[in-house]
Amino acid sequence: MADTSKNRFLIKTSENELLNQYWYSAATIEALVQEILSSASRVAFLSTPSVYFSLPKDSEVKKSSWVFDFDEQWRTDPHFCKYDFNKPEDLPGNLLNDFDMVVIDPPFITREVWEKYTKAAKLLLKNEGKVIASTVAENDGLLSELLGSKPCNFKPSIPHLIYQYNFFTNYKPTALAEKNPEIPEDD
């Protein structure tokens, strides 16, 4: 298992299986943070609290970004927005068309759920906004259709999830362009 000793979120926050919460490894979170810091200035984190809360506190990206999540344990954060993916339009009007990136990791991998997350992402994003999405490789065609995204070389390590996910972006990534050394090579 990956070393979590340097990631405060992973140390302090337990996964909630009832909400399908499975955190990325510390190294995967670090790669995502590096990708975000080099590619965006204002980010909407849809069901990705582990990444939002791992951004450097003093970074401009953290100060201008928001986390959208169903789990209200983070409601005291000034940039928390309660988010129910079944109501994708139920978003604060002042945040619409306001973000240059969304990071998405839904609790379910079905087309219906991805369509709802896509609707929310498109409402939150500015024109030409960037997307980082996390799902199974089998959803490649679906994410290409909905978000114009392609799989990245970097695959996330999610220690307590039984199947392998991929990252997908609608732009050419930098930190996610290399393979993740935590993930064994495919045979």
TrEMBL record:
It is found in: Cytoplasm. GO terms for biological process: methylation. The lineage of its organism: Eukaryota, Viridiplantae, Chlorophyta, core chlorophytes, Chlorophyceae. It comes from Chlamydomonas eustigma. Its main location: cytoplasm. The keyword Transferase applies. InterPro entries: DNA_methylase_N6_adenine_CS, Efm5/EEF1AKMT1, Mlase_EEF1AKMT1/ZCCHC4, SAM-dependent_MTases_sf. One of its GO terms (molecular function) is protein-lysine N-methyltransferase activity. The keyword Transferase applies. One of its GO terms (cellular component) is cytoplasm. Keywords: Cytoplasm, Methyltransferase, Transferase. This is Uncharacterized protein.
